Amino acid sequence: MAAIYFKGFNGVRFIAASAVIIHHIEEFKSVFLFNRDDLWARPFVYQLGRLGVSLFFVLSGFLITYLLLAEKQKTGKIAIRKFYVRRILRIWPLYFLVVGSGLLIFPHVPILHTPNELGDVYANFAGKLLFYGLVLPNVALALYDNTPLVSHTWSIGVEEQFYLMWPWLVMNRNPKRLLTIALSVIAVLASWFIYERFISRPVYLDRSQVSPFFSFIAFFLAQFRIGCMAIGGLGAYLLFSKNAIVPILFRRNVQWGVYAVLLACIAFSFRPTGINYEFYACFFCFMLLNLAGNPDSLVKLDNPVTRFMGDISYGLYMYHPVAIALVMNVLIKLWSSPPQTGGVADPLFVVLLYVFSFGITTLLAWLSYTYFEKPFLRFKDRFAVVASSRRPTDQPSDKASALS
Q1: Are 380 and 85 in contact (CB under 8 A)?
Q2: Residues in domain Acyltransferase (predicted)?
Q3: Is residue 161 part of a domain?
Q4: What is the C-alpha separation between 212 and 145, in angstroms, rounded?
Q5: Number of domain units in the chain
Q6: Is 404 within a domain?
């Protein structure tokens, strides 16, 4: 079987990573400069990074599911051990490098320090060390709140937990089980929506009445977006099985209509309570379906820049808080006058913040991908049963991975 290649997916990775970076630049700017009325307060910016992570989740669910289905078709089974080895070799090296540095090294580097509003690394340090070390960063975030420069890795925990169960579901001999599971996930999310909207919302108005356990469960479930990954997996199943609905979704008038609704929802910061991320995940899945299987896709995301940035997107995601903190501290020290006036940051300060934050993040991600991640990727290739490719001319290589 030839290596599986989906044109434009690197562009999707780049868009998702850029959305998260912009989100965190505005958050850091707000906290460092106390600009509570700046861009960070605008719903569009506030939601941007969250939708970027959701896009990553949908993409990961789509790719992983398609590769698992292709492996099952090719060999009649799924090599679970090899699957987990590939995931570990792709995700863990960079994860532990960033988390280890964030917990043990960065707190001793003054130029990387952040205001207390972004968290204290030493508060509940033993618990953080335990849960981050067990690759449960989403549990650490739910229990202990933010930890500077490493809390963004919560999404890695969500993906790892998704990977624990998903190949076993795909391996089931009845392919329609995937659809059943996806619908079940949607039903659970709908139940959670009803509970949050009509039952628990009054309690949220007074946090003193909420038990610590309830707070933990509510926060954990709010971040546990496996529904987005399941929606991506459903899209992969529809494409792989050549479902009758796919040609309808490929029609140009349908594409125009769906993308118009998506852009309007994003522009007006539409957020359906309780199912916000799953709502947008359906649109993202629609886009991935067209990129993956429709030669007449309206969205075109394949060019040298997006291919390069997509290759290093895992590093873009993992390193960007460090780059932003570095640039923010350096600019504040070098600025001759306060970088804000009347709650609005100096435009030149903002431009430099964006340029250098993106530039340093890209440099770190490229260096990491070239000199740190590639050896693990090459070793991971030995465990590939069905290969995927990031280029039409690439050698077969299983690089379909979380946030990369």
Answers
A1: yes
A2: 7-366
A3: yes
A4: 13
A5: 1
A6: no
Higher pLDDT, 366 or 4: 366
Separation CA 380–CA 249 (nearest Å): 35
Closest CA to 28 of 101, 103, 117: 117
Domain with 198 in it:
4-389
Distance CA 104, CA 150 (A): 11
User: Which tokens is 287 given?
Assistant: 């886009």
What integer pLDDT is reported at residue 44 of this predicted model?
A: 76
Look at the block and give the residue holding tokens 């709502």: 279
Place of tokens 């960070």: 40
The one-letter amino acid at 164: L
Mean pLDDT of 72-94: 92
In the chain, the largest separation of any two C-alpha atoms, in whole Å, equals 67
Q: Is residue 401 part of a domain?
A: no
Query: How many other C-beta atoms lie within 10 A of the C-beta of residue 298?
Result: 14
Q: What is the CA radius of gyration of the chain?
A: 21
165: CB partners within 8 A, 6+ apart: none
Pairing of strands 388-389, 4-5: parallel
The model's confidence at residue 396, banded by pLDDT at 50, 70 and 90, is very low
| Four-residue CA torsion sign, 159, 160, 165, 170 | positive
Q: CB of 192 within 8 A of CB of 276?
A: no
Q: In angstroms, how far is the first alpha carbon of the chain from the final one?
A: 23
Residue 241 lies inside a defined structural domain of this protein: yes
- Model-wide pTM > 0.90: no
Cα(107)–Cα(103) distance, integer angstroms: 7
Collapsed DSSP state (helix, strand, coil) of residue 352? helix
Contacts of 92 (CB under 8 A, 6+ apart): 135
Nearest to 96 by CA among 144, 133, 148: 133
Q: How far is CA 83 from CA 164, 168, 238, 384, 399, in A?
A: 10, 11, 22, 8, 12
Statement: residue 334 has pLDDT above 70: yes
How many beta carbons lie within 10 A of that of residue 309, not counting itself? 20
